[in-house]
Amino acid sequence: MIKYILNISLFISCLSAFGQQQALFTNYFLNDYYFNPASAGSKSVSIASFSYKNQWVGFDGAPKTIMGNVSGSLKNEGKHGYGVTIISDKIGLTNNLSVLLTYAHHLKINDRLKLGLGIQSGYLQNSVKLYDTKLADIDDDVFSGNILTENGIDFNAGFNLYTDKYYLMAAVNHLFIDKLSIASYNQRLEKNYSLIAGYKFNLDKQKIAIEPSVMMQYVKAAPSNLTAAIKTTYAKQYWLGLSYNNSKNIGIGLGYTLKERLNLGYAYDLSLSELNTYHSGSHEISISYILTHKKPSFEEEDEKLNNSIMDEMKKKLKQK
Q: In CATH terms, is domain 2-319 a member of 2.30.110.10?
């Protein structure tokens, strides 16, 4: 009996250590707000997003992550950002639940450059279902009906330096973990550090948009994760993404954007390490929808009208 208790304790400790890290989504460029609270409100629209990742399919107890969030800015002005995030992680016997609220403030540095500063706080819950433990003695009911639950309080913060063309953002999760001793779960968490940078440029008269980016994640007592990705979009509708990280995983993503509002995405991860003999890869589904648009100003409407008149005049001149 003691042997089983020790084995279970070790197993739970390993899974809990894994759960301290943020889930790594292959299509991370579709939802940067998940990784950084300072991104809330930076797009001057309100967005609802949903993601599901089934990692290491075929591996017993492999991670499964469900994430949903809504973010935007007050009156879609891109100054005061807000957000709500709900995350559910299931890893082996453990279930991790997070409910987080976000506020971000965006400062205009010059005509193009902005700086977003964001803070996020919320509730954490970690539970272990001991009754799902597989024991050699099937008649042993010591663990039957037992669920161990721990609660915590979380604080995350980050910055986002961005223009219409490029962005550089960094965040820290579990920021005050060494000072929060009021909750048992906080005592076993480690700070998570993440950095994302990317650049956007257009080709072929703006029909093709290319966005290369990199992301780095670090947590104490775990290997650093470095991911490089590139997303190519055609006619603002069809997109294809490729990524590779130093864990020897290659990812491919594809998606479709309907009327510049609804974005549907899918990604598949393939491991190039020795682990690929134990599972058949990872699957990821992403859905986002723009809830509200920023109303164009008088100057923007006037510029749009002038551009349409100029385009019409050019067409008539070509016909002559």
A: no
pLDDT bracket for residue 13 (50, 70, 90): very low
104 vs 112: CA distance, rounded Å: 19
Residue 289: what residue type? Answer: Y
In a 10 Å sphere around its CB, with 0-12 CB exposed, 13-18 middle and 19+ buried, how is residue 109 labelled? exposed
For tokens 């954007």, what's the residue? 257
The full set of domain ranges for the chain reads 2-319
CB distance 190 to 221 below 8 Å = yes
Of residues 160, 196, 154, 155, the one with CA closest to residue 38: 160
In 3D space, the residue among 140, 152, 224 whose CA is nearest the CA of residue 185 turns out to be: 152
Residues 49, 287 contacting (CB under 8 angstroms): yes
Determine phi and psi for 20, rounding to 5 degrees: -70, -20
* pLDDT the model gives residue 156: 96
Q: 52 φ, ψ to 5°?
A: -135, 130
At 129, list the tokens.
Answer: 């279902």
Of all residues in the chain, what percent carry a pLDDT higher than 90? 50
Q: Which amino acid is at 262?
A: L
Confidence of residue 297 (pLDDT cuts 50, 70, 90): low
Write phi, then psi, for 78 (nearest 5 degrees): 70, 30
Q: Exposed, middle or buried, 107 (CB in 10 Å: 0-12/13-18/19+)?
A: exposed
CB 295 within 8 A of CB 76: yes
Cα–Cα distance for residue pair 261/273, rounded to 1 Å: 38
The pLDDT value recorded for residue 5 is 43
Cβ partners under 8 Å of residue 141, min gap 6? none
Residues 72, 41 contacting (CB under 8 angstroms): yes
Place of tokens 């130093």: 246
What are the pLDDT digits (tens) for 67-89? 999 999 998 888 999 999 999 99
The C-alpha atoms of residue 27 and residue 32 are separated, in whole angstroms, by 10
Q: What is the structure's pLDDT at 137?
A: 54
